[in-house]
Amino acid sequence: MREIFHRELDQLVEQLVEMTRLVDTAMYRATTALLDADLALAESVIAADAAVDGFHRDLDERALELIARQQPVAGDLRTILASLRMSADLERMGDLARHVAELARLRYPRSPVPPELRATVLEMGHVAQRIVAKAGSAIARRDARAALELDRDDDEMDLLHRTLYERLLDGSWTHGVEMAVDLALAGRYYERFADHAVSVARLVAFLVGERALD
Question: Is 73 left (phi over 0), alpha (psi -120 to 50) or beta?
Fold first, then answer.
């Protein structure tokens, strides 16, 4: 019975890793749709968010069933509870990628990103992908050290976010209020995406540290 139980715990971890892959792909495609005014790609991101939501619901149901059926304690219980919190973070990251895609759809057939800010927004997309990929790797390998290193990537995202806002607020902005609002929203979506990935990574670090004490 214990072997079956731990196999089920491993399956929760596998689902979390798959969720990181899904939201990584979603943010990549959403960023491309935003920069290139690609309506079909934006629509595909919005539709694909249902898969992330499905993983989230399924993992929650399985985790709660394990608690009810196995009454886990100590490290096993922490793993389940942390999995529930990670799943919620990853589901929210999927929503944020969808919001970027919805912004691309809203402004089609033009991109809401002016030429002088394309590099900044593209780099925000790259950093978002890098953070979630590292979070997925940390989950899969139970690597606390790698998980804690994500704070540096988050600092990079925060710097890009500030750079974007400074450009929107300086006196040389000539693209109007609507585009400024669009970019402020997009910047917030990327920044929050990274914050949720760091939250996932910190849960991994907590679990690995706690297990060492059990």
Answer: beta
The per-residue pLDDT for range 127-176, each reduced to its tens digit, is 999 999 999 999 999 898 888 889 889 999 999 999 999 999 988 899 99
CB-CB contact of 39 with 105 (8 Å): yes
Q: How far is residue 5's CA from residue 182's CA, in Å, rounded to a whole number?
A: 47
HSE of 185, CA atoms in CB hemisphere, 13 A: 19
146 sits in the region (left: phi over 0; alpha: psi -120 to 50; else beta) called: alpha
* CA-based radius of gyration for the chain: 19
- In 3D space, the residue among 153, 98, 41, 123 whose CA is nearest the CA of residue 113 turns out to be 123
Do 160 and 123 meet the contact criterion of CB atoms below 8 Å apart?
yes
Give the type of residue at 71.
Answer: Q
The one-letter amino acid code at 57 reads R
**Domains (ranges, CATH) in the chain?**
2-213 (1.20.58.220)
71: alpha, beta or left, given left = phi > 0 and alpha = psi -120 to 50? Answer: left
Give the integer Cα–Cα distance in Å for 214 and 194: 31
Check if the beta carbon of residue 40 is closer than 8 Å to that of residue 119: no
